User: Fold this.
Amino acid sequence: MVNRVWQHHFGKGLVGTPSNFGALGDRPTHPELLDWLAVDFMEQGWSLKTLHRKIMLSATYMLSSEHSEQNSEIDAEARLLWRMNRRRLDVEAWRDALLAVSGNLDPTLGGENVPLTGVRRTVYTKVSRHDLDELLRLFDFPDANVTSAKRTVTTVPQQQLFVLNSEFMVSQSKALAHRLQSSADSESERIETAFKLLFGRAPSEQELQIGLTFLSTATEDQQEQKLNAWEQYAQVLLSLNEFMYID
Amino acid sequence: MTPPFHAAFASHPLSRRAMLGRVGTGLGTLGLAGLLFDEGMLSSAQAAAAVNPLASREPHFPAKVKRVIHLFMNGGPSQVDTFDPKPMLAKYNGEKPPAADIKTERRTGGLMMSPFKFNACGESGIEVSEIFPETGKCIDDICVIRSMHTNVPNHEPSLLMMNSGETQPTRPSMGSWLCYGLGSENQNLPGFVVLCPGKPVVGPQLWSNSFLPGIYQGCHINNSNLNPKEVIRNINNKYLTRDAQRRQLDLINQMNSLHRDESGGDPQLEARIQSMEMAFRMQTEAQEAFDLNQESKTTRELYGSGQFADACLVARRLAERGVRMTQVFFGAGQPWDDHGNISAHAKKARDCDKPIAALIRDLKSRGLFEETLILWGGEFGRTPTSEGSDGRDHNNHGFSVWMAGGGVKGGMAYGATDEFGFAAVENRTHVHDLHATILHLMGIDHTKLTYRYSGRDFRPTDVHGNVVHDILA
Assistant:
C-alpha cells in the first residue's frame, strides 16, 4: 500500500517493482523508511489521507526537479531522491487540465459514467474492455483486461498527431483563446494571463516576445486559416511540455 | 538484484549517464536491453533508442526476413477444398468409418467429397484446388504446411491463439511482439498495421499490445474507406495550411527547447520534442503510403479490383516502406466460416486468388520477396465430414496454412493429415511451432524474446513451440 502511494507521488516507488517484493523484484532504495511508513500507516488506522499528508508535507516531496551536475555524477537516476522526478501527467489529469484551462470542464461530481466525448472529469468516463477509447490508449491508459501495477510512459508521434490535429484539442484551443481575449485588451496582458493560468508563472521576456511575434505573423494570414491567430497560439500553449510534465 | 531493463524503459527514458551506470548488470532480455548490452554499445544512438520505442534494432542473429504480411482467412477455410487434396473422400463419400469419427464442436454426418477438383501445379507438382488457379501458378514459391493443429474448435480461442499464442485473452499479439523486439524500419508509419473492412470476430483484442507498451498495438485501418486523409486518426489537419502548422510547430519547438534547457536536458522532454517533428513528417508520409492512385494502371490490373485486392496492394506499399507487420483480414466477421454450402468457398477464393498471386509477383519484381514473409491461413480448418447437407464444421485437429518469401522453401508440401484430411498425423505443427518458426525466420530466438510482467517472463510462444527447420531454405 505504502509503496503504491509513494509511487503515485514520486513517479517511482521505494520498491521499483510494485507487484513484486520477492527475490526477483527490486530491492527497496530506503528499506527503513518503507518499514517505518508501513508501520505508521497501520498505527494511524490505515488512513490513506494521513499517509498522503505525511508524504506530501515531507521535505523530500517538496524538492524541486532541478538538475545538478555534481549529484548526477553520483546518482544519475536520483534513486536516492536528491531531487524530485519530473513526471508526465497521466491521461486523466492531462485531459482534465485541458478542460479546466479552456473553461469547458463540467465539475459535477458523482453520477453515472459518461462517454469521453463529454466534458466531465476523465475519472467518470466509461472504459471499454473490448475497444479502449483512442485517447486513453494513446496516452498509456492500460488495457482494461489486464492489471497494471505501473503505467508505461511512452512518447510517440501518434500522441503528437492528436495534440496537433484532433477535434478535442481544437475545441479547447478555441475556448482558451476566447477566454484569453476576454481577459484583457493588450496582447501582452493576455499572454501573461495565459502563463498564469496554464503554468502558474509569469512569462519570461523572451517568451513574451516570441509570443507577440507569432501572433503578429499569424494575424497576417489568418483569413486563409480556419483558426484565428489567438486560437493557433492557444493550441501552441496547450501542446507544450510544460503543460504535460510536472517539474 | 537490478530489475530488467524494460522496467526502467517503462517508467522514464534513461539519460545516457544513467544507462552507462547500468552496463555492469545482468540484462538478459532482447528488446532494448539485450541489444544494448550484448553489443556492448552505448553510443548516443542507442541511448536515443531507449527514448524511441519504435527505433529499428537488430535481431538475435542475422536473418533475411525483415517483415511479415499475414493474409488472414478469418472464419477458417477448409483444407480439403483448398490445399490438402483427399481422394479418399470421393471413395468413402457419405460414409463414416471409425477414422472419420473425431469429435468436433458440432455433430457432423458422413464424409463429404470436395466439390472442387485438384490440379498438380508448377514444377513441384503440388496439388492445389481449382478455386485457386493463380495461387497454384505460384506454388513453386510456396511452402504448404498441411499438418497444422490448434487447441479448440471454436473461433474466439482459436483466433486468439493464431494472433497471440494463447486461447485466453489477453496476451500481446504477434505484431506487437515483433515491434517490441525489432522496432520498425520506418518511424513515420505505425510499425504494425491491421487492415479489416470493419471488425473481425473478437476484434481489437487480436492486435492488442496487452501488457506491452501501447505503441506496439496494431493500428487498425478500416479499409472499406482508403481515403488517405482519413485512414489514420488525426493524420490530417483540417484547420491550418501546412505553412501555418509549421509555424505553430516552430513556436512549440522554441518554447519546449527553452523549457528543456532550464531542466538540464531531461531526456523525456527531448523525446517529446523529437516526437513532435516525427508527427509532422508522418502526416505526409502516412497519407502518401495509402494513396493507391500513385500506382500504375498495370499494377492496379495485376491485383484486380475489390476490397481484398486493394488491401494487398496497400500491404505491398507498407512493406516497401518498412512496416514491420501488416495483417490483412479477408473480411469483417468470419467470412470463411461455411457451415452450410461449402461451395461458397469458390467466390471467396475468387476474391483473393488473383491479389495473392499479384502480391507475390509484385514483391518479387521489386526485389522485396526475399526479405518478406507472407503467411496465408485461418484460425483452424474444417471437417471432411459434412455439416447439414453440404457444409463443414470447425476442425482444430488438422488444417493447412502456407508461407512464401525469404527463408522458406518454395514448392514444398510439409506434413500431412490422415487419409480423410481430418487430423494432422505426420510432422504435426502446432500454432506455437508456426510462431516459433516465423520468429526464427526474422532472426529471433523465440525463447529469448521476453517481457517481465506480473512476476514472470512472458514470451510469444509462452512455454511452447519448436522451430520447424525442415521448411527453412
